[in-house]
Amino acid sequence: MELKEFADRAGIRFAVFGMDWDQHPILKEVDGGALNHDEMLSVYGRSKLVFNPGWSFDSGVHNYQIKLRHFEVAGCRACQITNHNPELAELFRPNEEVLFYRDLESLKDTILHYLQADETREAIAEAGYLRALREHTMGHRLDDLFEECARLFPPSASPLQTTPQVIRVIVGACAPGNPHARDCLQIERMDDLFRPDIAEQLPNGGYVHLISGTILPLIRTTDYGSVLPMLARCKAPITHCDSLLRLPPLGKNPVQVDRGNFNGSTLNQARSLGLPPSIGAYFEEMVISGRNYFQINLLFAAHLFKSAAPDPLDSLDRNDIYESQRLICDLDIPQRGPAFKTCLNQRLADAFCAIEQLELKYVVWGAAGEMSIILPCWIDDHPSGFLGYLDRSLAGQSKGGHIIHSPERLDELQPDLVFIAATISGPTIFESMRDQRARYLLLPLYDLNHRNWFCGFS
C-alpha cells in the first residue's frame, strides 16, 4: 500500500502481479493479473526495476528467505530490489548484481536513485544475469547435489549392474506424427507380440511397455528411470507400476500447480477413489491371476513373448508380479472440472463432514502457504465452526473476511481441530505442539497419510 502511494506521488508506473490482487480494495487499481510462465518472463524483461521481496511467513526473527524468483529475475537481465538477505548476498554481490533495502525509506531512496541512473541500473542487471548463468542454473545445483552425494556415499567398486532396456510398443492405431510414437514398435493387437518376426525385435533381458494408441495423445512423458534399478535386481516377469493423471488445475494460478490446486490422482489410486467411466474408457485392463490391472501400468519381461509356451501369461500367478508402484507415465486427461476426489479433497471431505456433524471448532495454521489456497472454499461451506487463521507474520490482518490470529492465542481459542496448512515449516509446527496433542487434533496437510487423518474425528 505505502509503495503504491509513493509511486503515485512520484509519478512512477507501478503494477502488481499474481493471484487475487484484483480483490484488494486499493491494489486492484494496479493489478496486472496472474501470469503464465512466458508472460512472467516478459514482464521481468520489460521492467526497469523488479520489486522482489522474499519472506518466510512461518519463521521467527530471521524471516528472510531466498526464492526461486530471485534467480528467475536475474536470468531475465532485470534489475531487482529485495529485502536485506545475508544469504542472498553470498550469491549475488550487493549493489553490483542485486539491490537490497532495509526499510521503507531506504526502498524509496533506492527506487528513485536507480530509476534515474540508467547506465548503473542496466549494468547491475547485466552483472546479475551473468552471475546467474555462471553459478546459479539448475545444472549448477544438480552438480552440487551429485558431488555431495558422491562425497557422502562414495561409488562402490563392485562391477556395474547392467541396466535393462525398456521398449515401448504401441497397440492399435495412433495419429501419425505423434512424437511419443518415435522409436516405438507398433502392432495391431497384443497377440502380435508372440509372432516370431515381432518377438525377435524385443530386447533380450529387457522389458516391454504396452501403450494403447488411444492413450498416446494424452502422454506428457514416459520415464522409466525410477524403476530401472528394480528391474535389474528383481527380474520379475511383470512389474506393476503407476501413472499420474492430470486434469485442468482447480486454482487460478497457471504457473504454480501445487498440491493446493492440483486436480488429479495416480491411476491406481483413482480406481479406489471411484474412476468415472469418462476417464476409465481411456485405459485397457488386463486380468492376470484373477486380478485386474491397467495395461499401461505394466512392464512385461521380453522373454515372455519369446517363450515357446502357448499362453505364457496365463501361467503366471501373483508371485510373478513385482509391485513397484513407481510412476512411469504422466498423462493429461481432457476433462474439465474435478472428475473424482483427489487424495487431498478426500481427506478434507471426511474432516469437514465430521466438523459439520459433530459441530467441531477449527482453525487453520498458515494463512499464506501453498496449502492454504484450496481451504477457503471449504471454509465458506462450513463457516460456523471456523475460528480463524493462525500466522505469526500476518497476525492482525484478515483473509477472506476471517481474522488472522497470532499462534499464541491458540489456547484462548480452544479449537477441536487444527489444520496445519504450512508446507515447509509444517513438520516443525507439528512437533512444537507435542504437549498439546491431547487437547487438539492436528491435521497436517503436508502429510495426507498421517494417522491423524484416519482417527474417525471422534
Describe it.
The structure is a single chain. The protein is of the alpha/beta class and 458 residues long. It has 3 domains: 111 residues, Rossmann fold; 167 residues, no CATH class; 112 residues, 3-Layer(aba) Sandwich (Rossmann fold), CATH 3.40.50. The protein has 16 helices and 19 strands. Strands 4, 5, 6, 7, 8, 9, 12 and 13 form an 8-stranded mixed sheet that branches. A 6-stranded mixed sheet has the order 16-17-15-14-18-19, with helices on one face. Helix 3 links the parallel strand 1 and strand 2. The protein starts with a helix and ends in a 14-residue tail after the last strand. The mean pLDDT is 85.
Describe the structure concisely for a colleague.
The chain is α/β, with parallel strands linked by helices and 458 residues long. The chain contains 16 helices and 19 strands.
Q: Which key terms come to mind for this protein?
A:
3 domains; 16 helices; 6-stranded mixed beta sheet; 19 strands; 458 residues; single chain; Rossmann fold; 30% helix; alpha/beta
